[in-house]
Amino acid sequence: MIAFVRGQVASIRPTETVLDVGGVGLQLHCTPSTTAELRVGNEAQLAASLVVREDSLTLYGFGTDDERTVFELLQTASGVGPRLAQAMLSVHTPDDLRRAVAAEDLVALTKVPGIGKKGAQRIVIELKDKLGAASSTAGAQPQLNGAAPRGGWQDQVRTALLGLGWSARDADAAVEQVAPMAAENGHTADVSSLLKAALRTLAKS
């Protein structure tokens, strides 16, 4: 089992990063909140979860051990694979998910693309006794020396949203919603921050 990966950040995209670990570039799929705290050239340590399939080995990286734990617990629910689990953690923090499951808040759960009412009900039933209670610190993200990639933010944010399961129509609408924020920041616009803002916009819709 791979518990964590530590190395120099070689590249960053809104939902993935590559860490140079002893001369080997390891690609890790991450939530926008994790990549937003990374900076190319700096060393970072990410909690990791290796998903093994017949035709692939995929690493997922997290800013906290708690986020990784919730990621793995989510996959014990029927119909929840690693991509959907990552999408859930992209829309909600670990504690938000704990509160939603504990309160049987189907509305909050169905804000995640790919989760319908029946799927949300199933998640509540199967995970209510597994996720535990929310705490004030469990979902907190540490500072990981971060700055997300810049340039062509519209395409990057749109691609990331599509990869997380949102429709092209929803992705385009979210990009339009956060455009004023990008305009305000000008050349300092941060793609991962814009992606998080877009996800918040979609979650409210």
TrEMBL record:
A GO cellular-component term linked to this record: Holliday junction helicase complex
Source species, domain of life: Bacteria
GO terms classed as biological process: DNA recombination; DNA repair
SMART domains, sorted: HhH1
Molecular function per GO: ATP binding; four-way junction DNA binding; four-way junction helicase activity
Keywords: Cytoplasm, DNA damage, DNA recombination, DNA repair, DNA-binding
NCBIfam families assigned: ruvA
Domain comment, as recorded: Has three domains with a flexible linker between the domains II and III and assumes an 'L' shape. Domain III is highly mobile and contacts RuvB.
Family of this protein: Belongs to the RuvA family.
Record-given protein name: Holliday junction branch migration complex subunit RuvA
Organism: Phytoactinopolyspora mesophila
Gene name of the encoded protein: ruvA
